[in-house]
């Protein structure tokens, strides 16, 4: 059940009641955002706006798809690893287990283990993308004076923003080295439209595309960096772009694993890059080395408008698309938004990765209201004094995604890391502020975080809400109240005969 295209996925969503078509005209400016906020808050479906109203009042012939990954269920449904679609967040943990193996495979303990690993190794190798000569995404090719970004139904998300914003662009770049032909990076970066053939490429310095750009300049290249922006790829390829893929693995190759079949790629018409053949729209061009423009202010996932900063300009050299393309769009704002839902889903992918390095961790939770990654709650099996602080340091440094996590709260294994009531009880009863708070200054911080004293540089805090061991404390540690186990079992047996409301689940862990 592999989704070769976004359309394949939409057909499944519509059959399952997870997609609704709206024939009523809806403005791309602000109205789509307002509708999406209400759908997200209520776990609503993906929506296909069939009559987007452009800024000049005309109806665009290109429908807009929004709220595609507005629930964890739909994120899971987008993964068809081994040909089987997922439907729950827990099932996404299989993706994390695969990534953990690919990052650091466990040596086989014998011939039997080696034989069991062989099919997985063969599957990984078999997912190298294949190249095709003709592709649906190149049914229409626009060059020169035909190029017009303003003809696309690009969403204007929040009041006061300077221009429409491309929000779901899957940006393809390649490193300057010829050692690896598949050294492609797929990243999702927003792009402010400047005119018919120009936009601003807003990427942060630590992201793959920005690193390719920096290496390109450092290598002394005089020509601008080739770049392609894919709008509306299949779900496996989109999700591969937001997953921490090992650097030794092509992201297109991992996309093949996520979708359960090889990615089909086609060479771009004007730049030396490969793009998904079944995509809806592709913007081809170059990121200029010597042209920068002020970007913003735009509403961001923090729930605030970001500050205005300069980023490089993307010059469009061609637009290719299907004859009847679909434009994929979203917005970012205070959670819930699609990035926070994706973060909640990918949380399950991160757990096997982080447990591979720190097996004492029993759960890892990025609360959606923490703007996807700014707060992490970790439960662990404590084994020695100071253990919680080691785990804090490990979480901050292990995956690139967590370098911007400001708050880490560490609790014992018997605390539910995903229940704020449980976590706050641990914080209030197991912590002494002076002893159990670790503050680290002058660390990397998301430049969008205006709460930090310097742009891109700020502090982090770790809360040790675990039981304290000698010599962490000199006092006798308290004993937690717990009902006698025999009484718990007795009431379990009695419950159905008591005629009381509720399912009678005991509160004891």
From TrEMBL:
<dbReference type="InterPro" id="IPR049383">
    <property type="entry name" value="UbiD-like_N"/>
</dbReference>
<dbReference type="InterPro" id="IPR002830">
    <property type="entry name" value="UbiD"/>
</dbReference>
<dbReference type="Pfam" id="PF20696">
    <property type="entry name" value="UbiD_C"/>
</dbReference>
<protein>
    <submittedName>
        <fullName>UbiD family decarboxylase</fullName>
    </submittedName>
</protein>
<dbReference type="Pfam" id="PF01977">
    <property type="entry name" value="UbiD"/>
</dbReference>
<dbReference type="InterPro" id="IPR049381">
    <property type="entry name" value="UbiD-like_C"/>
</dbReference>
<feature type="domain" description="3-octaprenyl-4-hydroxybenzoate carboxy-lyase-like C-terminal">
    <location>
        <begin position="341"/>
        <end position="465"/>
    </location>
</feature>
<feature type="domain" description="3-octaprenyl-4-hydroxybenzoate carboxy-lyase-like N-terminal">
    <location>
        <begin position="10"/>
        <end position="82"/>
    </location>
</feature>
<dbReference type="Pfam" id="PF20695">
    <property type="entry name" value="UbiD_N"/>
</dbReference>
<feature type="domain" description="3-octaprenyl-4-hydroxybenzoate carboxy-lyase-like Rift-related">
    <location>
        <begin position="131"/>
        <end position="335"/>
    </location>
</feature>
<dbReference type="InterPro" id="IPR048304">
    <property type="entry name" value="UbiD_Rift_dom"/>
</dbReference>
